[in-house]
Amino acid sequence: MRKKGMVWFAALLVMMGLAGCAAAAGVTLRTFTPFADMDLAAQSYMDLITAWETESGNLVEDYSGLTDEAWMEQLRAMTADGQVDLVVVPVGSGLTGSELVNVEELLAVAPDCGARRMDAMMEADGTVLLTPVRFNWEALYINTDVLEAKGLSAPTTYEELVSVCSALAQEGVLPLANALGDWAEIVLDCAALLGAPADQYGQQASLDGAQAVLTALMQAGAFGTDPWGVTDADAQDAFLSGQAAMRFDSEGLAQMATAAGRQDSVTVVSLAGTDGQARTAVVGVPSFGLALTQACWQDEARREAALSLVTKMLSQEGLASLAGGSQSRLGESIAQLTASATGCTGLLYDLNPDGFESWAQGVIDALRSL
Predict the structure, then answer these.
(1) What is the value of pTM for the model shown?
(2) How confident is the model over 172-195, as pLDDT tens digits?
(3) Between the CA atoms of 186, 153, 170 and 191, what dihedral angle is there, to the nearest 10 degrees?
(4) Dihedral through CA 92, CA 98, CA 104, CA 109, nearest 10?
């Protein structure tokens, strides 16, 4: 447990000499989150908490850590005793409506707090207990400095993507750093979202659309001269080193880009599809969600303080910190991608595990023959 908030409070009391009055004025909230240790958002989360404490006069007693079974046992025990106020927990944590306030009730009291009701996070009884904070997602990463060096703007639509890829290929720059013969699942997922109306993702129309999208990109030279003879690890390195302009990948690449010092020259985008419509669902599934506890909700002072903290965490700035690990260009684009998401598509393999492999191989074989 990190009691950073308590240290700050003690220092404030010494400076003000008003220990009795200050103790009565502030509220102490107990929080459980995964933003600790090796998590890239650990420091930015604590910076957010520090800023909120300063603004509100309240305190945070934080129990963030690795979300293993020991951490969950401590959370359950303290929740049962009414000692926990705010949690950010994995989807499927097992916490119930008797312990957490559902999103509908939260929004009824604080409609502007930033919480979202997402069907992908629905419980078996139809309630939604968590508002999404993090997702396992897939999208298009862009090395903006590579595009800018060639006088090109980042694509926002499928048509612009094809056009930018064609222009880069003619300049001798690798447009898309993805190996089609190795770990092409993410490319297929993203192409399927582009290739048909969003509500048909995973259906035959989107599978056919994925093949059409990838065919057009291949013909534009998007994947280089030999996307079959390169490993995906090499393709990833080409993107992270700034040799390639773009790459389809998952949220994990954001941490690698940050570690490589490219967090202010890399962004992620969700493209409009071949139908010209924007895609408001992210490819993937929610991974962590936020909730207030019932014990907090029943205590007026704690509830008011917790709603203030929730609003700060779920703001665009807060989500950027929690998603990207810093208030960087990359973090801001991730926050925009996820904060604007109205839902999650799932992944093609999960939607059709029996038929995915044969379909994917058929698409790859067709692309090889071009």
Answers:
(1) 0.84
(2) 999 999 999 998 999 999 999 999
(3) 20
(4) -130
Take residue 208 and report the two structure tokens written for it.
Answer: 């056919």
The rounded mean pLDDT for the chain is 90
CB-based contact 344:135 (threshold 8 Å): yes
Q: What pLDDT sits at residue 326?
A: 58
Judged against a pLDDT cut of 80, whether residue 219 lies above it is answered with: yes
pLDDT value for 187: 98
Burial string for 345-356 (b: 16+ CB within 10 Å, else e) reads bbbbbebeeeeb
Per-residue 3-state assignment (H helix, E strand, C coil) for the chain: CECHHHHHHHHHHHHHCCHHHHHHHCCEEEEECCCCCCCCCHHHHHHHHHHHHHHHCCEEEECCCCCCHHHHHHHHHHHHCCCCCEEEEECCCCCCCCCECCHHHHHHHCCCCCCCCCHHHECCCCCECCEEEEEEEEEEEEEHHHHHHCCCCCCCEHHHHHHHHHHHHHCCCEEECCCCCCCCHHHHHHHHHHHCCHHHCCCHHHHHHHHHHHHHHHHCCCCCCCCCCCCHHHHHHHHHCCCEEEEEEECHHHHHHHHCCCCCCEEEECCECCCCCCCCEEEEEEEEEEEEEHHHHHCHHHHHHHHHHHHHHCCHHHHHHHHHCCCCHHHHHHHHHHHCCCEECECHHHHCCCCHHHHHHHHHHHHHCC
CB 129 within 8 A of CB 254: no
Condensed to tens digits (0 to 9), the pLDDT of residues 256-276 reads 998 899 999 999 999 999 999
